[in-house]
Structure formats: C-alpha cells, structure tokens
Automatic annotation (TrEMBL):
<dbReference type="InterPro" id="IPR031780">
    <property type="entry name" value="FAM65_N"/>
</dbReference>
<protein>
    <submittedName>
        <fullName>RIPR3 protein</fullName>
    </submittedName>
</protein>
<comment type="similarity">
    <text>Belongs to the RIPOR family.</text>
</comment>
<feature type="domain" description="FAM65 N-terminal">
    <location>
        <begin position="1"/>
        <end position="294"/>
    </location>
</feature>
<dbReference type="Pfam" id="PF15903">
    <property type="entry name" value="PL48"/>
</dbReference>
<dbReference type="InterPro" id="IPR026136">
    <property type="entry name" value="RIPOR3"/>
</dbReference>
Length: 294
C-alpha cells in the first residue's frame, strides 16, 4: 500500500487535497449557524458524526413521510371522485366545500413533497461529505506510511484541514436534518404489573430524550385503575439520543428504583399511533405502556 502511494506525485496529491476543500458543503448549500439546531446548541455541540445512525434515521424518516404522502394522495383521489359526482348533481354548496377540501389536501401534498426533497438533498450532501472525509482519512494514512518530506508534510496539513472541515459540515447537516424530524407525541397509558401493582402504590416515571425531560407521578387506585398527574408530552426527535425511561416506586419519603431502560425511536416514524410496551424490570414483571404519535 505504501509503495503504490509513493508513485502518486506530490502535485497530484496537492490537487486532490485542494479538490476536497473545494467540494465542501459550504460552497454547495447554505447552512445556518449551529445554534439554530437542536443538537448543536451551546453546551451540546457534537463534533462526532455518526453516519450509520444518520442513515437509519433517514431511511425511517423517508419511509414515514412517504406513508403520509400515500395516505393524503388516497384521500385526494377519493375527494376528487366525489367532486366529479357532486358537479353532475349540481349541489353547489357541497360542491364548493369539497373543492376547498381538495385544495387543502393538494397544498399539504406539495408541502410533503418539498419536505421529502429537502431531506433527500440534505442526506445526499451528508453522504458526499462522509465520502470526502473517508478519503482524507485514507490519504492521511497513506502519507504517514511514505517517507516524510516537506511536500508530504504540507499535504498532511492540508488533508487535516479538509478532514476537520468535512467533519464540521457533517455535523451541521445533522443539525439541519433534525429540523425536519417532526414531533413525537407521547401518551401515558400506565404501568402493567399484574400482582406487582397493588392499590395505594405510587410511582414516578421519568422520560428523557437528550435534554428534554418528562416527570410524572401516578397512583394505583382501589379499583386497580391508575391516575397520573400528566398524560401527554411532546418530544422533538434527536439523531443521537435514545429515550431513557426510569421508573421509581414512592414509599413515604423513600424512593425505590424499579428499573431503567433505553428505547430507540426509529420505529416511531410512522403515520399510525404506536403502542409501546417496555419491560422496566429484567424479568418483565413490571412494564410501562406508552402511545407514540409522530
């Protein structure tokens, strides 16, 4: 590998290093300041891109957006069919009402199509920067195996700058993608524990996603029903973080940890509400049931 790279001229290596810099995402698309994005705010800057995680989120997001697009296209087809029938029957009031509904659905479809194209554009730019970053890494490795000269040292400095710039651009694009992830609406459905849950027991559930937190308390009533002081919370999806769910039992002034689990959000990007049941204890004797709507 070292011998094959030695034959690569210094001029060529410099040209390639400069081309990496010219291909930067900064010259191809306008990106906002890092402070505009959820995971790039002060105190939470992430300079460690995670291409595999981004790929999984992108594929789940695109699939969910296409599901919404198909559902609204089906609604549009149905309304258009009724629109034609109504026009023949001359029911003007109903006809104009349908016309308004059709235009509203058409506008929403155009927004979805733009949303999908924007997500695809961002991910394409991300992949380009990822390949450029990998190329800079491979070239740095090859230069390190070749004899050190002034020209090779200069090329290494240039490659390091390109690597840093690609890394920064990837993080900026990750932040831009987060803006397009929508919202997760979580609903508390209660604990499931069979014999483990007794009337009078009190529990606290703590849900965290990055810096977003939801703390709620509940009580098991005498008829085995459950009352919670809060039932719904909105979370903004995050590329890098998973849901952390912690359940504790409240006994007077003491608290007893029931369990802590991590929950990935990839399966939440869908049009239908998702019923999520997670095992809080290792044996599954206590479970937490949530409903997630994206």
């Amino acid at each position: 590998r070292s011998c094959s790279f030695t034959g690569f001229s210094t001029v060529q290596s410099r040209k390639l290093a400069k081309s990496l810099s010219r291909s930067s995402v900064r010259s191809r698309m306008s990106l906002k300041s890092p402070k505009a994005y959820n995971s790039l705010q002060k105190g939470a800057v992430i300079w460690d891109p995670k291409p595999l995680q981004v790929k999984k989120i992108f594929e789940a997001l695109k699939k969910g957006l296409n599901e919404y697009l198909e559902a609204h296209q089906a609604e549009l087809d149905y309304l258009s069919g009724r629109h034609k029938d109504t026009k023949r029957n001359s029911r003007l009031a109903f006809y104009y009402d349908l016309d308004k509904q059709i235009r509203s659905v058409e506008r929403y479809i155009r927004k979805l199509e733009f949303h999908i194209s924007k997500v695809e554009e961002l991910y394409e730019a991300y992949c380009i920067q990822c390949r450029l970053r990998d190329g800079a890494t491979n070239m740095k490795h090859a230069f390190s195996l070749s004899p050190s000269t002034k020209a090779s040292r200069e090329s290494l400095v240039e490659l390091y700058k390109n690597f840093q710039e690609c890394t920064e651009d990837m993080c900026l694009i990750e932040g831009a993608l987060e803006v397009h992830l929508g919202e997760f609406h979580l609903k508390m459905k209660g604990l499931v524990g069979f014999a483990r849950l007794c009337p009078g027991d009190q529990y606290e559930v703590f849900v965290r996603l990055g810096r977003q937190k939801w703390r709620l308390k509940g009580k098991i009533e005498t008829d085995d029903s459950q009352t919670w002081d809060e039932e719904e919370k909105i979370f903004i999806p995050n590329l890098h973080e998973k849901f952390e769910i912690k359940v504790t039992e409240l006994r007077g002034l003491a608290t007893i940890l029931v369990g802590v689990v991590m929950c990935d959000s990839i399966n939440f990007f869908t049009t239908k509400p998702q019923a999520i049941i997670v095992d809080i204890t290792e044996l599954g004797t206590i479970k937490l049931q949530l409903e997630v709507l994206w």
